[in-house]
Structure formats: structure tokens, C-alpha cells
Specification:
14% strand, Transcription Regulator spoIIAA, four-stranded parallel sheet, 644 residues, 4 domains, alpha/beta
Amino acid sequence: MTPEQIERHLDRLLLSVVKPGRYVGGEYNSVRKDWESVSFRAALAFPDIYDLGMSNLGLMILYDIFNKQPNMLAERVYCPWLDMEALMRQHGIPLYSLESKRPIREFDLLGISLPYEQLYTNALNLIDLAGMPVLSAERDERYPLVIAGGHACYNPEPMADFIDAFVIGEGEEIILDIARVIIATRSKSREEQLRALAQVQGMYVPRFYDVRYYDDGTIASVTPNVPEAPPRVLKRIVPILPEPFTRFIVPNVDTVHNRAPIEIMRGCTRGCRFCHAGMVTRPVRERTVEEIVAAVDQIVRNTGFEEIGLLSLSSSDYTHVKRLVREIGDRWGAQGLSIGLPSLRIETMSADLMDALRDTRRSGFTLAPEAATEKMRDIINKYVPDAQVLETAREIYKRGWRTIKLYFMIGHPSETLEDVKAIADLSKAVLAQGRPFHGNKANVNVGVSTFIPKPHTPFQWSPLDSLEQIYAKQELLKRELRGNGLRLRWNNPQETLFEAFLSRGDRRLGKVILRAWRNGAKFDAWQDQHKPELWREAFAAEGLSMDFYTHRPRPLDEVFPWDHIDAAVKKKFLLEDYLMSQRGETRVDCRHKCFACGILPKFAEVRSQTPAEAWECPPVKPKAARGAQVPSANEIIPLLPVSQ
């Protein structure tokens, strides 16, 4: 079907769907380049609806990088909602790009963003709507290469049957390497194209690796089967963060995050043991205040957004955060520009920062203790004394905020019901800090999610809490967190189970994903669309067990499905940290002490953008904070199946 034919169909059909603005393109700041004047064409996809995908910063950065190249173009595609999908299938309309209405099959590359596992069935649906086989083995050089990237790709194995190649790590530089390889191999077979891609650092091509299993279902080995494929795929990073992206597309409909985000810092040095992002995005790199302020100026000029999100994993750890917030407030505060500063850490909050944020029209203040007892905060390596939590809350209320949002997790390793009850006790104590300032108008909103052991973290050896325990802990909190000023939100344990088996799955899960999708699973991230029964049926049909991937403790010497994916943090380091957690021992912020996690020797070109110091990575022996002892390397190395 031609773009003109697609346009004619849309003229008639869009009157019948919810939010037709999702499907028409033409937004302010979108880029429409001449199709015939370029030698490379990429379709960049976020496998969920427009309202969510338009807020994805990573996709917009890649869109901008491609379209700045004179011989390349990039266009966008999102998943249609159920009503639009039904009409597209009924009328034979293939999935198309928003900018030119070209069918996705006409592009050289379909790049799919996979930031979280709940998007897997949507990715299959997207490929199918494009008129392409969902299985990589059934697509040859007549089809676009399907390449995926994002945080979920640090364990790419569950999607190995469907994706031609994965980007491991950061995309700003590797994406142009991919384009050049595709241009150079356009006349070659798909096998030759993929062999060329496998030689690019950070590229993982699943078909070039063989997986061998033991009789008990655990992995015996993952080995390359062609010389071009490295035994371990080292992630790709950008040593110095490029200038912030500023020319945001102004969406046609209201989006989930109606703001312009700027990444002020990448990576985190805190070492929270549950945090996948904190481990895989190391090392820390910061942008300068001058860069960020200049970017805000461009965003205000180019877009009209009324809120700027200053993003990082730990925003209050940004070296010059107080100066940055003040400069933005002084310059644009009178114009009503609001600043969003998520991921504020309790121990790095200060009176000065609170004062600087006070005039930014924030409706509430968010803190994430994650656990409510000092014992549990030691286990997860997020130690903050209770007194500091309460003092921070008091200072927030004192400065005029009426609502504090507290985020916790249940299901941490070694957690008891007493630790869970402490969530209610601490939340009530925080609320009490607000009563002297706001009376009954003080509020505490408590969000409680369930801990999921993630790949490439110290807790990757831990089992997921049982569903019975999760339900019991949630019921306890529902009983305890009642009364004026208290509000509790929790997640569905079935959704936790779903995310857990996908995030820790091996290549055999591909058949489960395929069967579930063929039986109707999609939009699994949406509570009203997720169908757990389809997944249970798919597991049973394929002869696999959910419990094997979720509730089973891992032996210390087990080979994980993701061990050949090198996030540059050594498995030995993660194991040391896991054993420390079992003894309640902590590590200090590694900005202050290097624990030789392994990241910097692999990326010697990385340098800090903080003028006061340069990064070093001496081969020091890890030592716990507060004088605790750590197992020596000799105690741990023999447990590992491979040298890492």
C-alpha cells in the first residue's frame, strides 16, 4: 500500500477511533525529509501507544541524531490502540510511519525501544502489523533489520527469537555505526549483514550464540558459533554526554509526561542492591550547569513546554544541583516555568535545595526510603537513619508543601512482617511531622511496589517473594494505613510475577511469549489488558514452569542467561555485595571510595565532567562501611563458572 492510499484510508477511518491525533503526525518540530534524497531510512518504534511513547527521551534523541545526518532520515511509529488496530487489520492497512505514512517494511531499519519487559508482546504485535514475520529466522534481506535497545535488553534472551540484533548499552554513537554497516551491506544476504553487525562493539546477534542446558533446566554454557561474535558482548557507552536534546516534538494529544526532560547526569554511584539501572548505567557522567541552562533556554524558545524535568537516577547527587535549580528559577520563574526534580535522596536533601525548589509550583514532594527499618535499609544498601527521614519530612512541610509521597518496596530479601508494618509506622510518623504546619491538610501518599530481583544486580541470586507473602504484606498495609491524610497505592502481584519471569528468563521463554501473543496477549503493561491466564496456559503448553524463573533461589555458581552480556560491572563484585547484604553490611557512595567494581578499567576514556576531580579506579579491596568485613577474592572466585 502506498503512502497516498494510507492517507485516503485514514481520512475515512480516523473519525471512528479514540484520539485520532495519535495517528496523523505533522506535529510542531517533527522532521519530514525527502525520501529519495537519503541513502538510509530508519523507523524508530516505541511499542506502546503514542501517549506513552512521545515521552520517551531515548527515542527522541536517536530521532534527532539520524535526522541531523544529511544522508539519513528517521521517522516514528507507535502501537495503535485496540480500536485502530482492528480497523487497520480489517482494511489491510500496514503499520506506517507518522511523518511520511510509509509502510514500515520500506525502511532499512526498524529500531525498537525496550525499556521494560512488559512491552515484549507489543513488540511482536508491532512487527506483525508491519506485515513482517515475527520470527527473526523467517526474515531475510528483503525486510528491514529489526534491532532493539533499552534497559530490558541487558537480558535479551527472552526476545532472542524475534529480534535480529540488540544494542547493549547507550545508543548515541552506536546508532550511526549500525546505519553505516547497513548501508555498506545492503546488497548482501541477511547472514552477511548480521555478521558485520556482530563486529560492532555493543552489538549482540542472538543467532550467533548456542545455549546448552543441564538436565535441571539451568544453563551449562552460552558460546559463539561464528568467529565474528565475541564470547562476551561489552556494553557501549558515550564517554562524554553530548549536548542535551532540545527540539522536542510538541504532541498532538496530551501525554503521560507533559514536560520536556533534560538528563542532567547519567549513572549512579549509590550502589542500591535492588537497582538495575544504577548498576548498568555506570559510570557517572554529569553535564555542566551552563549546558543545562542553555538547553532550557532552547526548549522554552522551541516548544512552549511549561515544565522541565531534570532527570537522573539520583538528582540531588548532581554536583551543582542547588546552583542549577536557582539559576533556572531566577531566569524563568516569573514566566511560570516549573521544574521537576525526581529521584531526590533523603540523605542529600538540604534546606538550601528545598528553598530553591519551593517556588517551582510542585504539588507534592517525593521521597523514596524503599524500606522502613534501618535493618532493611542496610540490606538493600540504602542506609538512612529514621531520624533523618523524619527531619527531612519536617523541613519539607515547614516550607509549605502539604503532601509528601513516600515510595517503598516489599519483598526484599530477609524481610519480615514486622519490617512491613514499619512502613505504616514510618508513614504515620512522617504525617505527624506535617500536622503542626498544615493540620488536617497535611498528607502522606504511600506507594508500595514489590521487589523483583533483576539481572546484573547483587540480588540476581535472590528469589522473588511468594505470592502468598506478597498478598499478606499488602493486606497488612491496607489495614494499617487508614485514616485522614493517608493514602496507599500498591501493585498487582500478578503483574509482579509477570515482570519477574520475563526479566530473568532464558531463550526458551521465546516460545512462551510467542504462544501468549498468538492467544491474544498484548498491552501487558496496562492493568485492564494484562491477562495472566494466557501466560499460565502458554507456560503449560511449552512445558516450562513459572516458579523456575521466579521463586527459585540461585546457587552462587549458576550460569545466568545474561552472563555473556557484559554490563562492565564484574560478577565477582556483585557476588561480594550480595554476601554483604546477607550480613547487613553496607558500602559507602563510591564517589567517596572506589570498590573496584570493574567499570572504569573497561572504559579508560571516561573522564568526569566535574571540574573538581578526575575519575580513578585503583585496585582497592572492597571494604564495607562502618567497619564490616567483606569476603576476600579468594573466597569467591572459585564459585564463579567463568573468569569475570
